Request: fold
Amino acid sequence: MKRFIVAVTLMGLLGTGLAVAQKDGAVAKVNDQPISEESFEKTLLDWFGREVLDEMIQSRVIEQAAERAKVTVTEEQVEQRLKDFQMGMDAQAQMGSGESFVVWLAQRRMTIPNLRARLRTELLLEGLVTDQVKVTEQEISAYYERNRKMFQEPTQVKIALIKFKTKEQAQQVREQIVKGEKSWAEASTEYNLDLRLMKSEGELGWVQHDGTPVMDAAFALEHDGDITPVVDYQQAFYVIKRLDRRNARTVPFEEARPHIESAMLEKRMLDAKSDHRAKLMNAAHIERLMDFPERAMHGDQPGTP
Reply:
């Protein structure tokens, strides 16, 4: 992915013909000393030229193979893949396990058109190997039997949680909820310090015991709808509501099956794409007509010590 980012960045700069350059050919001035357009282009080519050319060659090889096989990709497919990618990243970010789509783009200095081009190439490659990517019922069942330990779940509770700044506030709001003066959803929206939980009415989902006082209190609740006393933990105060509970179990095959199939298909698609990409590159007649200086790269940026 880093090679692709470098490629689209350079192609974006050079593809404009450097229209931002002044009439005297300068792209910038430092204390009135110009940095010429020619010097700028040479530096870009020295630093990134090899990666850009390799990326363009690979894309062209895949496009030619897709044309021979009459594999096509519609704009609707590209837009749907882009939408799915964005939604997946944003969902992970809301759960605190990744960066948002906008941040991901910004950190890589990538634009939406750049990403669309990459997704289109990947979709063409998927179209070339899709007939090879299959999983049988026997394989899914065998995987489940071999990995039963993976499908064992401890006792879990489904909870909602409101995080407060002070104990006094937590006690006051808890009393209002218990008396019916304020709904749980209203309290979470108004007071929850955790912004992710505020948007979901405090619902945290299914959790297992992690040894913290918060989980001690949550697992001590006896009935769905019960609310804990105020819990003091790590300089914050919590009120937890039990929504559901399920005892330790082995996830049944019928429930695990779609997840197993999806994971196996994803793995086989990745392997198939990697193998087919290598075969296409090995079979293609490629002439590299430009020479680039050899260099040692350290870190994420050219010239980084």
About this structure: The longest helix spans residues 37-68. The chain is about 55% helix and 15% strand. Residues 1-9, 11-19, 298-305 have pLDDT under 50 and may be disordered.
